[in-house]
Design a protein that fits this description.
By secondary structure, the chain is an alpha/beta fold. Strand 10, helix 7 and strand 11 form a beta-alpha-beta unit. Helix 6 packs across helix 7.
């Protein structure tokens, strides 16, 4: 009988610890790495031998911000992430999720997610199992269903508040002391069942509340008081475990960041702050956050910044788009049915407000300046002449205000015109500054969210291909530390994120020079006939989860060796 199940021979091993790469062999048995050797292991000792000569052998990637809570129920590999080398990921991000949820509130929770994270309602309606009610029961479902990746989950604060207070009450008042105690107990129960901490979106009801509920109002956690949030932090302090993921408002930058520091101090746990990115228009934003995190860490306050490390370009139609919600005028005209949206876009008073926003240069947080929006694809033949123009160029060509030109075009096409928003976070020097910090974690893949707009789940591939190979922002050893080891430690994956003897064999084997994301395409692979935008990966020869190959040369093997990692381990 063979001593090893799999032997990876002659690879360039980058183990995720920042140690220098080396050429060697890696042996796997019973789902774990059992030997790593520089001098070579006899191939006759293995049932399967993978020749990795000329290839990089590294730990599988860890994706901390995914929103795959619905998708994992019909897609065991959580693609996009699974295509791009992710072997472990976290659910329940931003305080959003589906547990605890009473049966009669399921549709309303799915409607919330259909706007705040733009997950298609019909896909959720057709594809979700809903064989749970409580959070521990949800984890039991995750443990039971087939998985091609390892998963762990936050306790999402939104469902906890709604379970105790009801949706409308949670939006209009503070909890009573009894309600607060019940919510804290629900967090305790979730942690007992195996959660890695809790998560929250806390954007207030002002300009930065860019991700809103189905009716355009803030999410319940957005308007939760600081005092309530700090009470939840006390739960983690009492337990001495877990961490917090927060998407925090920055309306009053000093006050808001001081609150996040207080959250870390009270909880005694790390806080993963969303988000930092290289905003070409406002470079001071990222520098301010980097300085803040460094000063907090120097005081022993564990603040980490999750960084958008891939281009933040968007492709969408106004039939589905919601990421203009941070501006009141745009939020108003993108709420409702297609017919209702079109009527609002024709309203003279609303148009006046949109023109004023444009003229004074008010820039949506997520999209960048509206004048740079590109008419990517039109539906009607007589409009093909406008393809490739920016909104500003469209207005100039028609001799009209750009807003009027844009709205009349999309109305004439029943909101089916495809718009492209160019990336505005691609400044090389700013990105280098971000990843010179010890406290930044690449990610915010949103792989299961905004499925018709963005494909940020490709971030792992492009971090290696763009930031390492092409732009030399970080070296290969640092990249694998940031993509695997650091996020694993952040999320409490106790034995993941590095290649070491005795650790689970979550491994990526890839051709460094060939690594790339494929062009964006539309895939009709969601339940209910829904579609999504996807970008696949090239260059990954093998992806292994717990020692089993899930993808070989981009082709899924059908193996589902993924596990629910309660308390960070199997």
């Amino acid at each position: 009988m063979a001593q090893f199940d799999t032997l990876i021979k002659n690879g360039t091993i980058v183990d995720g610890t920042r140690a220098p790469r080396f050429q060697g062999d890696l042996a796997i048995r019973d789902g774990k790495v059992v030997a790593i050797s520089r001098i070579g292991i006899d191939p006759t000792e293995a049932a399967r031998v993978i020749d990795a000569r000329g290839l990089v052998v590294a730990p599988g990637f860890v994706d901390l911000h995914t929103h795959y809570d619905a998708q994992i129920q019909w897609d065991p590999y959580c693609t996009l992430s699974g295509w791009h080398g992710v072997t472990s990921l976290v659910l329940g991000n931003c305080g959003f999720g589906f547990a605890p949820v009473a049966p009669d509130n399921r549709d309303r929770m799915m409607l919330s997610m259909s706007r705040v994270e733009a997950i298609p309602f019909e896909a959720m309606k057709k594809g979700m199992l809903w064989d749970w009610v409580t959070f521990p029961e949800w984890l039991d479902t995750l443990a039971r269903i087939p998985k091609g990746v390892n998963v762990i989950s936050y306790v999402p604060i939104g469902p906890v508040m709604i379970w105790v207070m009801g949706l409308e009450e949670a939006k209009r008042r503070e909890p009573t002391s009894a309600e607060l105690a019940e919510m804290c107990q629900l967090i305790e129960t979730g942690m007992d069942a195996g959660a890695c901490g809790w998560s929250v979106q806390h954007l207030g009801d002002g300009f930065t509340s860019v991700q809103r509920d189905y009716d355009g109002t803030p999410m319940v956690t957005d308007i939760m008081s600081n005092a309530t949030c700090l009470a939840f932090a006390e739960v983690l302090r009492k337990r001495g475990e877990g961490h917090i993921q927060i998407t925090q408002a920055q309306d009053d930058i000093r006050e808001d960041l001081v609150f996040v520091e207080k959250l870390a101090e009270v909880s005694g746990t790390p806080v993963l702050f969303n988000v930092v990115n290289a905003n070409n228009h406002h470079p001071r934003q990222s520098r301010r956050l980097l300085e803040w995190a460094a000063k907090a860490q120097a005081k022993g306050i564990k603040i980490y910044l999750q960084a958008v490390s891939v281009g933040n370009d968007l492709t969408y139609t106004f039939e589905d788009f919601n990421l203009l919600d941070g501006q009141e005028d745009w939020r108003e005209v993108t709420l409702g049915t297609v017919a209702e949206r079109m009527r609002k876009m024709q309203d003279p008073a609303r148009r006046a407000g949109l023109r004023l926003d444009y003229d004074i240069g008010r820039m949506p947080i997520v999209t960048g300046p509206i004048k740079s929006f590109v008419i990517l694809e039109t539906i009607r033949p007589e409009h093909k002449c406008w393809q490739g123009m920016t909104v500003q160029q469209l207005g100039d060509a028609q001799g009209r205000h750009p807003i009027d030109a844009l709205l009349d075009l999309v109305i004439a096409e029943q909101l089916q015109t495809v718009i492209f928003t160019p990336a505005f976070n691609d400044d090389v020097d700013l990105n280098r500054e971000i990843f010179q910090s010890e406290y930044t974690v690449p990610g915010v893949s949103d792989g299961g969210a905004h499925t018709k707009f963005v494909t940020l789940g490709r971030y792992t591939t492009e971090f290696l291909a763009d930031f390492v190979r092409d732009k030399h922002i970080v070296d290969l050893e640092e990249a694998h530390y940031r993509l695997s080891c650091l996020p694993a430690k952040m999320a409490g994956f106790l034995d993941r994120g590095v290649l070491a003897e005795g650790r689970p064999a979550d491994v990526v084997i890839y051709d460094f020079e060939a690594l790339r994301s494929t062009p964006s395409e539309i895939a009709h692979d969601f339940p209910g006939g829904e579609w999504r935008r996807v970008q696949r990966a090239e260059g990954y020869r093998y992806i292994l989860v717990n020692g089993e190959i899930t993808f070989e040369d981009g082709v899924c093997t059908g193996a589902t060796p993924g596990k629910l990692l309660r308390h960070g381990h199997a």
